[in-house]
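We now fix the convention by which a protein and its fold are recorded. These numbers are not coordinates but entries in a learned vocabulary of local backbone shapes. A record is reproduced here so that you can trace the correspondence yourselves:
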Amino acid sequence: DLVKFWRIFCVNTVGIGLVRIDDPRSSNDFLGVYKQFSRINHSCSSNVIQDWKKETPHKIEVGAAAAIKKGEELTLNYLGLLGTWEERKQKLERKWYFQCLCEVCSLTEQERKNNDMVRKF
């Protein structure tokens, strides 16, 4: 049971709080599992973004990044917008133990190359 708990904890934890380059006191040293937020799945083309407020650093706010239809799954980009398809694929497999099958990762090889070029900027 402890091994199962640890596996679930490791892939569902979220770094807590603001991390700001201009504030040496900011830190992402704490991890937490959130009842709802930790269940949001990844997509390289996500429809929500997360935000931390300075006044409530342990509370995550989720906002729409695109139009979301009723019944549509909420998805979050775990990695940020940059990185090639290969880099994203490797990081997701290494850290979260899954292969992304989102619409971006399901593109043809040439479409993925075009998408990678766009993400460089």
Observations:
- The mean pLDDT is 86.
- The first strand starts at residue 14 and ends at 15.
- Residues 85-96 form the longest helix (12 residues).
- The two ends are 45 Å apart (CA to CA).
